Automatic annotation (TrEMBL):
The keyword Metal-binding applies. InterPro entries: FAH, Fumarylacetoacetase-like_C, Fumarylacetoacetase_C_sf. Belongs to the FAH family. The keyword Transmembrane helix does not apply. Residues 78-284 form the Fumarylacetoacetase-like C-terminal domain. Its cofactor is Mg(2+). Keywords: Hydrolase, Metal-binding. GO terms for biological process: carboxylic acid metabolic process. One of its GO terms (molecular function) is metal ion binding. This is Fumarylacetoacetate hydrolase.
């Protein structure tokens, strides 16, 4: 199933895509039969969203092009990002490939949805793109075994880990350069795991800047696959329903090019992952409407 959150007339709602017709069906929170928000359903139990989708597909068809899309989740409890998860990217970045995942956090204040603007910061001109797979946890757990890791995945989405390189490398910790407001694009939808190969492996990932392909890779080339990431992270912290793991970017970033290819106001950046969808955002100066 594909699930999209949206705003219509100032009211939040969500819709599910009917695979037989390609039409989206759903309603807003004002509907007396509204089954609850996507976030609340995920936190209820792993099957609650699936059951709600079966109900929502009976609702009237909606034209999502007329709606303002929202991020697939409203407030993820944790957003855990993975650095250096493709060997070619580690090489272009000047790092030796680590044998343990490089992890850092993003926060909800940095997130934007499909077709929302990426905010070009006033503090630096080093805003870079990073197309990535996003893994959405549906079943909580601690010290999860590899054999059961994928049982904890609800679905997947697309992420653009917009990075302000000057601030990323001011200190050994990357958190500042990775959390400028309005730089983490997330969407356009949540695709449940049953629609994709196990661990979302074998999917083409492509990033385009102003129509030019700048990153092209396959998710099977991740050094640490989805199962490994879940095992490693859950050794230390309990994964909760609604947590997001952003699984790393391949080679082709603008910072590694000569001359540098940073994003600038007016640019359009697209990240597309086979079977999941296309995430598109225009870059604009901070403070502009």
């Amino acid at each position: 199933m594909k699930v999209s959150r949206f705003l219509s007339g100032g009211r939040e709602g969500w819709a599910v895509k009917n695979p037989a017709t390609g039409l989206w069906h759903g309603c807003t929170q004002e509907d007396p039969q509204y089954p609850g928000s996507v976030d609340s359903l995920i936190k209820t139990d792993p099957g609650a969203l699936v059951s709600a989708c079966e109900f929502m597909v009976q609702k009237p068809a909606l034209d999502l092009s007329e709606m303002q899309l929202l991020t697939p989740l409203g407030q993820a409890p944790k957003i855990i990002c993975v650095g250096l998860n493709y060997t070619d990217h580690s090489t272009e970045s000047g790092f030796e490939q680590p044998d343990y995942p490089t992890l850092f956090s993003r926060f909800n204040t940095s997130l934007i949805a499909h077709d929302e603007p990426i905010i070009y910061p006033a503090l630096s001109n080093t805003l870079d793109y990073e197309g990535e797979l996003a893994v959405i946890i549906g079943k909580p757990g601690k010290c999860i075994s590899r054999a059961h890791a994928l049982d904890h995945v609800l679905g997947y989405s697309v992420f653009n880990d917009g990075s302000v390189r000057e601030y990323q490398f001011k200190t050994p910790q990357w958190i500042m350069g990775k959390n400028f407001d309005g730089t983490g694009a997330f969407g356009p939808c949540l695709v449940t795991a049953d629609e994709l190969p196990a661990g979302a492996s074998g999917l083409k990932l492509e990033t385009r800047l102003n129509g030019q392909t700048v990153q092209s890779a396959n998710t099977q080339d991740m050094v640490f696959d989805v199962e490994s990431l879940i095992v490693t992270i859950s050794e230390v912290m309990r994964l909760e329903a609604g947590d997001v793991i952003v699984a790393g970017t391949p080679a082709g970033i603008g910072h590694a090019r000569e001359p540098k290819l940073y994003m600038k106001p007016g640019d359009v950046c697209e990240v597309e992952i086979e079977g999941i969808g296309l995430l598109r955002n225009r870059v604009q100066h901070a403070g502009l409407a």
